[in-house]
Amino acid sequence: MADRIHKPTKFPSRVFESFHGGDDPAQLSRVAHETANALLSRVRENPDPEIVERLVGYTDEHGIDAVAELWSRASARSLPGALWRLYLVRLLIRQDPTGTSFLYQRGTEVSTTIDQVVAGAPNPTSPDDIVTLADAILRGIFAGDFGVALDRAGAFCRVMAAGATSLADDTDATAPERATELTTRALRFAELADEFSACARLWRTDSLD
Length: 209
What we know:
Protein name: DNA-directed RNA polymerase subunit beta
Organism: Orlajensenia flava
Keywords: DNA-directed RNA polymerase, Transcription
Structural class: mainly alpha
Largest sheet: none
């Protein structure tokens, strides 16, 4: 990753809402795959707690753009693509833990799946809980079961999608613009959930590159 240190970059919600994923795998940069594989292999072979924590909090100090430059154009179903999306979701949570925990809590109330159990946040879910969950999921990538970490990320996104959809339904009649925004956000979270789940399956068959 780049050594240049600068003020962390804010990531407006509208950018997330317009995020559709990476390019075709044939167009991926070789550097993205090499850096993702080298980083993950090195850390997982010797998961020093201090190094793991520095990686988990990397974007807090350096900003999201350093990660984006390396991995944001990678296919959603690739190692660099998965890492980029994990950092993106963590940043979104940390920028608005109150709003995120509210959406997540609503999702747990309307969901009929076990996703909230898989994600692993306490119920009820406070802003501090949701930040802790984001860090725990990313930490699991570097020093835990990689597939389980991806499953947790996918489950988290599905709960968020359910919460955003429910709130969109509530506000449709009185605040249609807000309802549209929430619906768009729900779709993005659902898309991310599918991508994380696909990456987990690929990882378990040694096919996530």
